Structure formats: C-alpha cells, structure tokens
C-alpha cells in the first residue's frame, strides 16, 4: 500500500543547529481536532506512526521526521518531530 506522506522544503522551517521550527499556519489549511494538529500523515502501512519528509534545499537529501510528543509552551501546544539527531517543533498559532 502506497501512503501519501507530506513533503516539505527545509526553507519552510527556521533552523538553529539541529532544530527546525515553524508555525502551524505556515502549512496552510490543517485538520485540527481539539488540541491536535495534523501536518503529517501515516508513514508506515503496518503502524500508526505519523510524520512527514523534509527535503533539504542545499543538498536535496530527504529526511523522514516522525511524531515524538506534545509539549505545552507558554502560548499553548507544541508538537515535536524527530529524525535521529534532528528535531522539528510546530507551534500551534
């Protein structure tokens, strides 16, 4: 089964070291369910893991980021995704 995993450009995130950040509104129309954001999709057909690919504008390399956890920030919910030593935080704005 082929899954439709979203693909985003590395330019859509602000990077500091190995952490990228972006506002949820940067991704256009998102499905929201209560406090949950859905910017990713299922990444494996035999598991419920969700995530997305990020393509580097410098190298063209594609990395799969998968959902790790929710964190509460000073202004609400944050979602954290990981790809090994790299992390992405999505702010629910």
- Main beta sheet strand tally, sense and closure: 8 strands, mixed
* Stretches with pLDDT under 50, minimum 5 residues: 31-35
Number of helices: 0
Q: In one word, what is the shape?
A: globular
Structural class: mainly beta
**Ends distance:** 34 Å
State mean pLDDT (0 to 100 scale).
81
Q: Roughly what percent helix?
A: under 10%
Strand content: over 45%
Radius of gyration: 13 Å
* Number of E strands: 10
Number of domains: 1
SSE series = EEEEEEEEEE
Comma- or semicolon-separated keywords:
single chain, 93 residues, mainly beta, eight-stranded mixed sheet, 55% strand
Q: Mind explaining what this structure looks like?
A:
This protein has strands at residues 7-9, 14-16, 19-23, 31-33, 36-38, 41-42, 50-55, 62-73, 76-83, 86-91. The chain is mainly β and 93 residues long. The strands form 2 sheets. Strands 1, 2, 3, 6, 7, 8, 9 and 10 form an 8-stranded mixed sheet that branches. It has a two-stranded antiparallel ribbon with strand order 4-5. A hairpin with a 2-residue loop joins strand 2 and strand 3 (19-23). It is globular and about 35 Å long.
């Amino acid at each position: 089964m082929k899954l439709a995993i979203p693909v985003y450009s590395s330019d859509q995130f602000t990077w500091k070291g190995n952490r990228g950040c972006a506002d949820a509104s940067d991704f256009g129309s998102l499905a929201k369910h209560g406090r949950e954001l859905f910017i990713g999709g299922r990444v494996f057909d035999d598991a419920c893991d969700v995530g997305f690919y990020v393509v580097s504008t410098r190298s063209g390399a594609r990395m799969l980021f998968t959902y790790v956890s929710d964190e509460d920030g000073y202004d609400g919910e944050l979602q954290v995704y990981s790809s090994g030593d790299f992390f992405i935080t999505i702010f629910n704005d």
